């Protein structure tokens, strides 16, 4: 910490009229999660999303990071936070599709899945084998 010690009574007094803002920092002290205080993704958070996702996460798309928007998985207007955990890179085409019924989800292993509006999952299939 910063060396300051507060008594419980002083903390209650300060909290009486306070607002609370959660801020999660990376090892360099840059915010990775700004909670609900900002909808627009700050540059350092965008860099973290680009580093994690590498390209558009929509199944079958490899659009580079500079073609992509940072999408809130749970929309900010519906209570979603501006955070690394609630973000995904989507190219303009797929960002539009996600806002028109398509759905993306990050699995616990970090891989992404995509569903059509009718609920069917989009799978990628390997191309035909080259003739030897």
TrEMBL record:
Matching entries from InterPro entries are given as: DUF222, HNH_nuc
HNH nuclease domain ranges (all copies): 44-96
Q: Which domain of life is it from?
A: Bacteria
The entry's protein name is DUF222 domain-containing protein
